[in-house]
Specification:
about 140 residues; alpha/beta; about 45% helix
Length: about 140
């Protein structure tokens, strides 16, 4: 009897757009996986490399960074800075042997609840295909990886 792998995904969402879209999706009964654990940020520009690495180190199987549409950031360039950090992190993940596909950044508006649900489902399915985070077992055992 095999147990189906249910990935855990941390979503760093900006307050003004992505978090509002997630709330709209929930209010509109748009299904997105309970595997998504949302962390509300004032802006994705506040997302730090260390926060993402800590999520993986703590056993998250994937991370989704969701910010405002390009050129529409409430803090002018916050989402552009976040995109640079995500690109850096993707290269770093590949370098350390953790698939870069586990990390994804999306840009959506507050009115895109249905799209948020679609993107969340897509990312969870991508992570499911990759399998469990190899750091997860070490994190659950309290061992430094």
């Amino acid at each position: 009897m095999s147990v189906e792998f249910k990935p855990e995904v941390v979503a760093f969402c900006c307050r003004h757009c992505a978090y509002a879209a997630a709330d709209l999706a929930g209010g509109g009964r748009q299904a997105y996986p309970s595997a998504i654990k949302i962390v509300e940020l004032p802006c994705t520009g506040r997302m730090d490399v260390v926060n993402v690495l800590h999520a993986f180190e703590s056993g998250a199987d994937g991370v989704l960074v969701a910010g405002c549409l390009s050129g529409k950031c409430h803090y002018i360039k916050g989402n552009l800075y976040a995109r640079q950090r995500v690109n850096y992190l993707k290269a770093l993940l590949d370098e350390i042997g953790l698939e870069s596909e586990r990390l994804r950044m999306v840009n959506i508006s507050a009115a895109m609840g249905i799209r948020f649900a679609e993107l969340a489902n897509e990312h969870v399915e991508c992570v499911r295909k990759l399998g469990p985070n190899p750091l997860r077992s070490a994190a659950k055992q309290g061992v430094a990886a």
